[in-house]
Amino acid sequence: MCGDLLDVSYDWDRAAPPSSLAFFEEKWSRRTDPLCLSGVWRFRDLLPFASADKVITIGEGQTLLQQADRVARYVDLAAGCLFLQYEGMNPSGSFKDNGMSAAFTHAHSIGAQRAACASTGNTSASLAMYCAVTGLMQAVIFIGSGKIAYGKLSQALDCGALTMQIAGDFDDAMERVKEVSQELGIYLVNSVNPFRLEGQKTIMYRVLEALRWQVPDWIVVPGGNLGNSSAFGKAFSELFELGLIDRIPRLAVINARGASTLHQLFEQRGLRWNQGSADMEIVRSYYAELDEQHLKAETIASAIEINRPVNLRKCLRALETCDGVVRDVNDQDILDAKAQVGTGGLGCEPASAASVAGVKLLRQQGIIANSDRVVCILTGHQLKDPTATVAYHTTDQAKFNEVLGNRGVQRASFANRAVAVPNDLGEIVKAIQLYS
Ligand code: F0G
User: Across residues 242-261, what is the average pLDDT?
Assistant: First the structure.
């Protein structure tokens, strides 16, 4: 027992991985096989921890890489240089299904009857859906009180998850779920679970696939519990080791300013992986400061409202692998970027837009070049958090203040306000002619 997270490591000599990424193209022609249809399991040769008959899939990973030129203009990238990897297309509407399919597969293979997670909403929605669709396990989810967006909560409730609303925030719920799963022998599917990250590696495989196996210059991802960033680093490190890619893209992890532990530690306090000997004293003293000042995570991007990311060390490793940077962006930047994604992309929830706001900042700082090829991960569907979206576009100042003003959001620069009209044909026609 080292007290640290477990990591999945393969003996590639025995696993016999393919000699070229183009190997995976042939799977599409066999998509009547659920393992070839799944955007996770068609890359099974690169996460060979489960035999085919054990795999649980509900059709995850049918996602899309969208070239988004209008959003590129907003962040000052050249046309053709910004791509949005839209993970909202997953069955439960977020990237979590990639990892859940893998963790669920492992849970089932060891005979688990119940599975638990703490969540800011998407992990719980995903777990609830895997349990509901397969009928194989009971979902037990831990959420912070008042902390989860309605779209996500409704999914968990609809899917019949046992929903424990903790009087506390995500960081509290995470602590409790670890204790409870230990005590009751419930399988834990949070990203402390190494199999989750194996599934999430496939997001990067699909990005490469959509780019015809060309490696982009940057991968930009919002950072919360840091499972995704950790998984991406592992994916690229393995692909490079296997000779399947000839270079590794740079990674930018974007925190929300009200939940910016990684940014604080990495950019302000010099914390580094240092080939495995990260100075964890820096982390302990930062957490002690948070406690002393009673500082809790606070951002409109509730999905990443996390101050104690469980995958911190693995993320540091990923940042080393990918020559990474970390930035934080405020709620104003996040919501403006989200509105831009809505206008010129496929739409997303607030946390996802942190990636686009991060690119804008890194462009201003000259760290990303105008001609760099950049992939932002849109981690969650637009419909996950309608409250934030409607408040941004509203004409009702009181509503705006209640949801956003309190968080330091001052304006809705890209608001698309509904036009109020009388129930009268002439007035409606006049208004359309005036505004269109
Ligand atoms: N974006 C969305 C939409 C998320 O739901 C999350 C995490 C993240 C980004 C951050 O990803 O944790 O891998 O750094 N949501 C978790 C949850 C914590 O409980 O649903 P990460």
Answer: 98
